[in-house]
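Support request, please re-run this one:
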Amino acid sequence: MTRIHAFTDDALGEHDAVGLVAALHAGEVSVPEVVEAAIARTEAVDARLGGLAFEAFDQAREAARHPRAGYFAGVPTYLKDNVDVRGWPTMHGTDAFDAVPKKADGDFARQYLATGLLALGKTRLSEFGFSGAVDHPRLGPVRSPWDTDHYAGASSAGSAAFVAAGVVPIAHANDGGGSIRIPAAVNGLVGLKPTRGRLAQDKMMREMPVRIVSDGVLTRSVRDTAAFYREAEKVWRNPHLAPVGDITRPGRARLRVAVVTRGVGRGSSPEVRELTLRTAALLESLGHHVEEIDPPVPPSFPDHFVRYWAMLAFVIARRGKQHHGPSFDVTKLDNLTLGLARHAGRNMLRQPAAIAVLTASRRLAARHHAKYDVTLTPTLAVETPRVGHLRADQDYEVIMDRLMDWVAFTPLQNATGEPAVSLPLATTANGLPHGMMLGSGWGREARLLGLAYELEEAVGWPRIQED
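Re-run finished. Output below.
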């Protein structure tokens, strides 16, 4: 096992984002010092992790002299390379078109940066976020700092690798099939996919027939995630959702917890099932009522989700020039994107049914959460694959079969729009983090954060620098 991290005795130290805010306010460190430390940490580990998509270090140094206001003023961060930032290209993890600087911040970046976070650049993702691992044919993989022989998950892999390795304390991620929760699970992080519409979104995400994508953050502590949502709501809040508010401690209510260890269509490995049941026992020991149940959606759900997922690839392949400019070359898309596009073309008449099933899943979920407050599942069905297992230059059928074996639990909340959080509650026999996922009803982020605080206090999270 090759474990690497960037933690050292510099201005960033071992602070999480909230701790760094306190150090800045106390005058223990300055914004230019922490920005310089984050740049040095990036340069120290990126050659081995492969997380950096675009660097704006000189711009960050200049911004550090006069950081914008906000709770997180001057805290260094990265944005994932599928949201627009003025003056930076947005490449979506692909070689299919030329890099062109964007003329304005997208809606999400505007909200994110208004909290005071100071971006150093952008992080890598799988092509258009379709794969659960980043393994680009030209650029290679994004590797987990916990073991560089294994993937850092995806699609928000670069952000996760940098937060886990201590490069920055908080980074942007987004999630259309698990892409906040998957890399959180793989890298020992807290990854909350919020309720649909909780945060501002770029136009492309808002125009989906079923809005499966949600933006959020990856952090090393529950309090960082909670603080981000508190501060983001001060910038913009969806009037149709009750506010998350300022969640700073464990919830007091004892909850009804449903435990699901069998994915929709495919089950978890024996080891992952055992790790999930241990987490269920922990919840029970804390006074929560725990009951194991079958998956709350029909076995056909994965096929419908893949058809809808494939339709997004079909649109990219057919309308790439319209969305990404005249340089777009469909032949430069990877095998997974092209295979998904072909799958959609063969199943076009089934698309209305797929959309109907995904839309109806919210009603099924509402009935489920009338009976249970929280649902516990493993975030991923099997241990993190080794680098090469999900290479994008393999046959489409091979990649998809391997993805379906691994990513069997996370897509449900993308369809329902409900929140779910992956927490670093388990470790495999090989010493790799393996996240456990807690889902709840529409708008119930506060409940999940309260439970996450309770679990963090009960067992703590593994620390990469302790090895």
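The chain has one domain: 17-466. The chain has a mean pLDDT of 96.
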